[in-house]
């Protein structure tokens, strides 16, 4: 199977997988506490999402960052071996292992849905990313916060990203250093997600998901 076809399969299966994890391990406490941590307004009945991708971002945070008794919902699902196929297992393992970071787009491929990005926070290295939506909407110089999910065939995003104009790069790096404490009780990845979700409100590029 070509990597683009494999990518489409992972996207489709992964979307359903996240719904299954949410159904299996979510409750009112999970939804309320994660919404509160992301400063999403909640009137007791409804969540007031502010932009198109915020619901997906909220659920990703709830499944892959919020820990209860030391484990996320996705980790519990993996440990319980509740996946229904090898593809689901591969997606779950890869996404659980992924750590979100801030990336700068270096170039967009002319031959397929690929981007070259540089990690600005962790390894400072270039990576090739396979992502249909970002390859059509991002431009060189744009800065992206996302979870890089690595498979044997390629690396992609989890499906959620926060894009920012390139001129915001120094601000974002400074805010990261100010808001993220590696010695704090909460994981760095969780602190990063909260920080960049908040920064996206005021400084992000709002995109439409296709």
Tell me the number of structural domains: 2
Shape designation: globular
Give average pLDDT, whole number. 94
Query: Would you identify the regions where 5 or more consecutive residues have pLDDT less than 50?
Result: none
Strand order of the biggest β-sheet? 5-4-3-6-7
Overall radius of gyration: 17 Å
Order of SSEs: HHEEHHHEEEHEEHH
As a percent range, the share of strand residues is: 15-25%
Structural class: alpha+beta
Measured between the Cα atoms of the first and last residue, the distance is: 23 Å
Major sheet size, sense and barrel closure: 5 strands, antiparallel
Work out the helicity level: 40-55%
Number of H/I helices: 8
Count the beta strands: 7
Textual characterization of the structure:
The protein is of the alpha+beta class. It is 46% helix and 20% strand. The protein contains eight helices and seven strands, in the order ααββαααβββαββαα. The strands form two sheets. Strands 5-4-3-6-7 form a five-stranded antiparallel beta sheet. The protein has a two-stranded antiparallel sheet with strand order 1-2. Helix 1 crosses helix 5 and helix 7 packs across helix 8. The protein starts with a helix and ends in a 7-residue tail after the last helix.
């Amino acid at each position: 199977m070509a990597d683009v076809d494999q990518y489409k399969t992972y996207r489709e299966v992964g979307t359903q997988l996240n719904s299954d994890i949410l159904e299996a391990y979510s409750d009112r406490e999970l939804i309320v506490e994660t919404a509160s941590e992301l400063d999403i307004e909640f009137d007791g009945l409804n969540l007031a999402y502010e932009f198109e991708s915020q619901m997906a971002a909220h659920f990703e945070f709830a499944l892959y960052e919020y820990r209860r008794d030391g484990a996320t919902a996705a980790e519990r699902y993996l440990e319980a071996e509740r996946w229904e196929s090898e593809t689901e297992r591969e997606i779950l393992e890869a996404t659980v292992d992924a750590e979100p970071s801030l990336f700068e787009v270096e170039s967009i491929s002319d031959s397929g849905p690929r981007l070259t990005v540089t990690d600005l926070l962790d390894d400072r290295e270039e990576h090739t990313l396979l992502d249909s939506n970002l390859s059509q909407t991002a431009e060189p110089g744009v800065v992206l916060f996302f979870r890089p999910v690595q498979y044997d065939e390629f690396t992609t995003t989890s499906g959620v990203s926060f894009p920012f104009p390139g001129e915001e790069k120094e601000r974002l790096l400074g805010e990261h250093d100010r808001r993220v404490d590696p010695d704090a009780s909460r994981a760095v990845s969780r602190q990063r997600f909260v920080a960049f979700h908040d920064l996206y409100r005021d400084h992000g590029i709002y995109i439409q998901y296709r």
